[in-house]
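Notebook entry, structure prediction.
Reason for the run: the old model in the group folder had no record of what sequence produced it. Starting over properly, with the input documented here first.
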Amino acid sequence: MFIVKRRVFAVVNQKGGVGKTTTAVNLAAGLALAERRVLIVDFDPQGNATTGLGVDKTGLYPTVYHVLLGGEPTEKATLQTALPSLRLLPSDIDLVGAEIELVGMERREYRLRDALAGAAQDEDFVLIDCPPSLGLLTINALAAADSVLVPLQCEFYALEGLTHLVKTVKLVRERLNSTLDIGGIVLTMFDGRTSLALQIRDEVHRYFPGKIFETVIPRNVRLTEAPSHGKPVMLHDLRSNGAIAYLELARELIHHGGSAA
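New structure, fully documented this time:
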């Protein structure tokens, strides 16, 4: 069953190196291969989602920065990717200044929300790849989103970081976006051979029952190789464990319509 209403997900974790961009890019690709129309918003100044989808950032104009602060139309900045159903709103290092420039602007928390609302809303899914922080860019993403999707590495500090994120989501829901919820937690870089990974998995299920996706993303060499080729893992090695996992995660997201329960 196709999703009728566009669903906007902020892919968030303030801790770096947890597979956030990997999840945003490959989940978007999995949804596109399932013939859903997808827009991925690269909202990280590092622009890793942009390069991971094969876009050269040299001299790139306009980007999400110019949409956010320069008044450029969202459609003008949006690029087609190698997958017909997947489009990209790209980013580059210019976005690093947005945190400061936004401070004095009207509706500073709603700039991304307004930009997305003003564009043609013909996607089934929008995935916003957020920076590894809880600053003003991430707040913009949370104000624009329907749900939060949290990639969570099964390691020692995972639950502590998740607790801070949940508090931030609660504050945003109270003050900026009353409909925001946690759409699901995705366990990433999972190695079932270690007792710590199994312990963290069980702890997350205990503290956040009904919020964990059944699909677990394994540690996989092909997942780490794919960005250097400018491709989602499905276009790099469709039969790899990483590709299969993200295709299954996309199926799960479609089936539940944004709820991991």
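Summary: The longest helix spans residues 158-175.
The old model has been moved to the deprecated folder.
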